[in-house]
Design brief:
Elements lengths: L6 E5 L4 H11 L4 E6 L2 H14 L3 E6 L7 H11 L6 E4 L14 H29 L3 E5 L12 H20 L6 E5 L4 E2 L2 H5 L12 E2 H13 L4 E2 L3 H12 L2 H12 L1
Parallel strand pairs: 1-2, 1-4, 2-3, 4-5, 5-6, 6-9, 7-8
Helix pairs in contact: 1-7, 3-4, 4-5
The structure holds NADP nicotinamide-adenine-dinucleotide phosphate.
The site of NADP nicotinamide-adenine-dinucleotide phosphate has 29 residues, from helix 1 and helix 6.
Length: about 260
């Protein structure tokens, strides 16, 4: 059911899935808070959304790899008297390569953005949602969450965290009006693969989905109150097969896919 009064905060809205999710939430006619580092991209999206939908859009340029960033976002919105009804924790990135060969700083930033910022923003905004008796959290995980990922060890592990955290939170909030969803996409055409140096991997050589389709599945699943959304038949089949397969076999297959 559409709720036209929602204020929706979306991280990583300057590109890919975040920008597509922003378009879907904008169509509801509420207000948006768009967060990412690239202010010019956020402004361009805000102008586009406001020209097509009657939606209020605020942009916040913030580097979520800085530990203090979630608190700064929360304080800015609190001081402006903007209650956030829905948080979409979408910002994230990956890095392809052997654990000991990738820069340590980049791996630590990945943990900060993919795990710590997502957790902190959820912790900051959820109490207000519970008080007001409305709202939800849409966390963007990945099909990487379902198995270990040799060749992208830290990234896969961050997404396992997102899945388990979101599932546990969903159970804790069962019976409340707060909706919690983990969107777990498989390979999708965004800026992600190029930034992660994955474009030539087997993983991105077949069955890659387009961002609008993946975002729509996540958006609809969230509004329907589904806890886990895996867009695409191939991705659902793989996630299911992993559960029935020996872990050593799964590790080897994933290693080959990431090569
Ligand atoms: N594409 C895929 O194949 C795929 C598959 C499974 C899961 N996912 C997940 O989907 C989510 C969205 O990724 P995408 O595919 O849309 O990739 P994308 O096109 O690269 O977009 C990533 C977004 O995250 C933002 N971001 C990255 N680092 C940030 C930081 N330090 N501070 C603030 N914002 C930051 C980027 O904005 P700025 O650069 O402007 O800061 C951008 O808006 C990620 O969590 C990703 O792990 C993607």
């Amino acid at each position: 059911m559409l709720n036209t009064r929602d204020t929706v905060l979306i991280t990583g809205a300057s590109a890919g899935l975040g920008a597509e999710l922003a378009k879907l939430f904008a169509a509801e006619g509420g207000s948006l808070v768009l967060v990412a580092r690239r202010q010019d991209r956020l402004d361009e999206l805000a102008r586009d959304l406001q020209s097509r939908c009657t939606v209020g859009v605020r942009t916040i340029s913030k580097d979520l790899s800085r530990p203090e960033a979630p608190r700064e976002i929360f304080d800015e919105l609190s001081q402006a008297g903007i209650p956030v009804d829905v948080v979409v924790n979408n910002a994230g990135f990956g890095a392809h390569g052997q654990f000991t060969e990738l820069p340590a700083d980049r791996q630590m930033q990945m943990i900060q953005v993919n795990i710590a910022a997502l957790t902190h923003l959820t912790r900051l905004f959820l109490p207000g949602m519970l008080e007001r008796g409305r709202g939800g959290i849409l966390n963007v995980g990945s099909t990487a969450a379902f198995q270990p990922g040799p060749g992208m060890a830290v990234y896969y592990a961050t997404k396992a965290y997102v899945l388990h955290f979101t599932e546990a939170l969903g159970e804790e909030l069962r019976g409340t009006p707060i909706k919690v969803t983990c969107l777990a996409p498989g390979p999708t055409t965004t800026e992600f693969a190029a930034k992660a140096d994955l474009e030539r991997s087997r993983l991105f050589s077949f069955g890659v989905m387009d961002a609008p389709t993946v975002a729509r599945a996540g958006y609809q699943g969230f509004r329907q109150g589904r806890l886990i959304v895996i867009p695409g038949f191939k991705n659902r089949l793989l996630a299911f097969t992993v559960r029935l397969s020996p872990r050593a076999f799964v590790r080897q297959v994933t290693k080959r896919l990431n090569a």
